[in-house]
Design a protein that fits this description.
The structure holds two protein chains of two kinds. By secondary structure, chain A is an alpha/beta fold. Chain A has one domain: Rossmann fold, CATH 3.40.50. In chain A, helix 2 links the parallel strand 1 and strand 2. Chain B has a single domain, classed as Alpha-Beta Plaits (2-Layer Sandwich), CATH 3.30.70. Chain B is of the alpha+beta class. Classes of the chains: A alpha/beta, B alpha+beta. At the A-B interface, helix 4, strand 5, helix 6 and strand 6 of A face strand 5 of B.
Amino acid sequence: MSLKSSILKKSPWVFHLNTGSCNACDIEILDALTPYHDAERFGVKLVVSPRHADVILLTGPITVESLPKVINAIEAAPRPRIIVALGSCGSGGGIWHDTYSTIGGVNGLLKILKEKGIEVDAVYHVPGCPIRPEALLYAIALIKGIVSKKREMKIYKAE
Amino acid sequence: MSIKPVKLIVIAGKKGRVTVKYPFQEPIVTPEFRGEVEIDPAKCIGCGACVRACPPNALELLESEKEIILRYFVGRCIFCWRCVDVCPVSAIKGTKNFELATDKFTDLYTLVVHTRATCELCGTPAETVRMRRYITEKVPISEEYITTCPTCRKKQFAEKIAMRKVGISELKK
């Protein structure tokens, strides 16, 4: 079962997973679900259990305290599971990237998940501090294949 | 107490459609909005002022033997635009771009590769070539000593002092 065939046809149900964030990104997720932005146009539905979810919206820099619960929640989600790392904290560790109490964003988490044998099918990074609701809509549209990717790695040679 | 469905339809009809058609239209951003920053490689001198100002170390200076690389990792950037304020040559410019979502981690990097100059006497790697040019433009007197590293400069200075004290003939013995 490829990712494309399974996800593009159906509505991505999302599970909101806070891993120690400052709640700014959480509020923006709720903002994206209001009638003004209306993420439900794309079939997005906020579910209460990771067992019902296709997409896990991960906010926060993943503190050491929350790590076992995060692993449990991701393990509970059925395959194919997609992680969308929201905000600067989620995608790169943010301002907490080298603190003793965090593991530095989703990259640290993926290493730990690989050690434990939990597979993740796709990881999407959505930078922003906090993210705009439009940025989240853009990420969902990217998952569904409505819009194309704009960002690419740039290497400049300056003399 | 509850509003009847007919009344509700009338209210909704008056209000009209409020939902924005975002992915299919231009995003609405305020003039004060801060998005990702853009580094102009034609202007950047690789001084590292932005690296010191950056709170989450999204801008980093990677040093190797022959190159100095300014790395901008947008996945960690908090869009404070401090780097825009401190840049001495205004090479960093703020944009309103926020559509940065990607499925590949490496897409979030921007690299500016600078060549490194070396000390004329001992050959240890020093600051970037452009940085030297910038300093000589700003402080013309530095042209005399900019090609050497601080250690060599100290040595030269000490030799000159010694020469004055004891004389050339004594020093050569």
